[in-house]
Every structure is written in C-alpha cells, then in structure tokens.
Amino acid sequence: MNFHLLAFDAPGGLGGWLGFAPLILIFGVFYFLLIMPQQRRQKKWQNMLGELKNGDKVVTSGGLKGTIIALRDDSIHLRVPPDNLKIEVTRSSVVSVTTPDEPGKAEK
What we know:
By secondary structure, the chain is α+β, with helices and mostly antiparallel strands. 44% of the residues lie in helices and 26% in strands. It has helices at residues 3-9, 14-50, 103-106, and strands at residues 57-60, 65-71, 75-80, 85-90, 94-98. The chain starts with a helix and ends with a helix.
C-alpha cells in the first residue's frame, strides 16, 4: 500500500497549509515591492499638496510651469511665463514643487 500518497491527501494535515504557502509568499513579495512603495509615494505627494503656498514654483501633470499666486480649496491659480498668464488648475494636477532657495545659499 502507498502510505506516502495517503499522507498528502489527509484533510487538516500539513499538506493543506503548505499548499497556500507559495500564495502567501507571492502576496508578501508583491506587497513589499509594489504596494508599500506606492503608498509611500502617495503619502509624500499628499503632504506636498498640503504644504503648497504662494510663491512656490510648480510643474503640473500637463507640463505647465508656473508660480502660485492664489490658493483655493481644490484649485490653485498660477502665473505662467513668458506673458504672465494667470490660469486656474486643480491641486491634484501638481506633480512637483521647486521652491527658490534662500538668497544666501543660492549665490554661493
């Protein structure tokens, strides 16, 4: 009789748990390589949007570069060179902020 085959078919045995171990391992790898870094980026981006202030130079997702002249609840007003156009964009379209350095540090 083949006893080694019966050991794997027994319900509630170690074989059932070991069958899910690769799936748990794959989920863990996906979490640490994909989900966790994305959550960190999202949190950093939300903090950046919350810290926007007048005078910050920003780049939007559409590629517009401008200076913030007014802040609203869900939008910002930008002054865009070269003609100093004033436009309104949503806060969520801001991709990055480049604030000017302090004058003493920039001249070195």
